[in-house]
Amino acid sequence: MQARDTPPHPWWKHGHVWLLIAGPAAVVVAGFATLWIALATPDPVVAPDYYRRGIEINKTLGAPDRAHLPAVQGRNHAVTPTLP
């Protein structure tokens, strides 16, 4: 126990202060690490003709069954009876 005549310890000698500082410091370090990863590894570029490729894929999958219809057509014809 400290006597009343001795001065208190400085703030950096208390463990709970460093516990409170460690949380936000870890978040800042993680933020910079995430930024570095994002800048160091660029995203792959989408093909410039992605829409045309999708249309071509839909044409090749034009089977008589409705399993390969585009989403809008499949939704619009969900209750349409199938022809024999």
Automatic annotation (TrEMBL):
Source superkingdom: Bacteria
InterPro entries to which the protein is assigned, alphabetical: FixH
Transmembrane parts of this sequence: 17-39
Keywords: Membrane, Transmembrane, Transmembrane helix
The name this protein goes by in its record: Nitrogen fixation protein FixH
